[in-house]
Amino acid sequence: MKRALVIATACLAACAGGEAVPDVSEPAPAMTTIESSTTPSPTSTTAVESPATTVSTAPPTTRRDVTAVSAPGTYDGADFAVHLQFISEIPEASSLQIEAISLEILNGPDGWRRSGFTFVADAASGLTVILAEGDRVDELCLPLETFGKVSCQNGPVVALNADRWRLGGDDWDSTLETYRTYLINHEVGHLIGLRHPVERCPTASKVSALMEPQTNNLQDCVGNGIPLDWEIEWALRRPVVIGPDPEWDGPRPNWPGASGE
């Protein structure tokens, strides 16, 4: 009877579609006997581990406090949850669509979360991302000049130029989706206090730093929508200035090994 049950079980595993399933009816490999000076009581529950199982002796992970941010200011702490309101003023994309696309980009594994930032949709937040036509962006960005063409961060507002959203950059060398990743990560990068590097990409064919202005001219470098490792390190600096005004003269990063800040 046991032999018939084993054969039937093996047949089910072999005949089923999809990935192969290990035959749990086979005898487990021999286990190394570990002598112990104590014997479990008959009522104890003893877990049996396979030979490949290892037991971690590392201490439990310490939970880090997260500071919620929904207004401009200077903040200290390890991690930040930045609350953003999303508004679309163009007909082909709703506010909810822009919200979903932006949060997927901003909370991606290669983005600013590596520097301790996560991003949350919040209709009541004082920090706003607006997708609008060029003339409206020009108004939102004053005193910065965007010439109906480019985007900006101005205090608590990130204003995204609709034509850049639709068409990408003049010199962009990759897909529209990748440009949008750059646009969101770059402008929100300004919102969390990150400025343009002192120098542009130092070598032709080298991947651009995310915080370089890449819309008008890549200067023979490669377009890039995610922060480089040294930009992640820079963004770990604390305290952070959220929603800086245009006149803010905070520190600027530079390429490793470049001539200085």
Q: What report would you give on this structure?
A:
There is one protein chain. Helices cover 24% and strands 15% of the residues. The longest helix has 16 residues, at 176-191. The protein is of the alpha/beta class. The model is unreliable at 1-61 (pLDDT under 50). It has six helices and eight strands; from the N terminus they run αβββαββαββαααβ.
Shape: globular
The helix count comes to 6
Average predicted confidence as pLDDT:
82
Number of strands: 8
Task: Give the biggest sheet.
Answer: 6 strands, mixed
Radius of gyration: 27 Å
Order of helices and strands: HEEEHEEHEEHHHE
Uncertain segments: 1-61
Strand content: 5-15%
Helix proportion of residues, in percent? 10-25%
Give the quaternary arrangement of the chains.
single chain
Distance between the termini: 80 Å
Q: Structural class of the helix and strand makeup?
A: alpha/beta
Feature tags:
single chain; 261 residues; alpha/beta; six-stranded mixed sheet; two-stranded antiparallel ribbon; 6 helices; 8 strands; 15% strand; globular
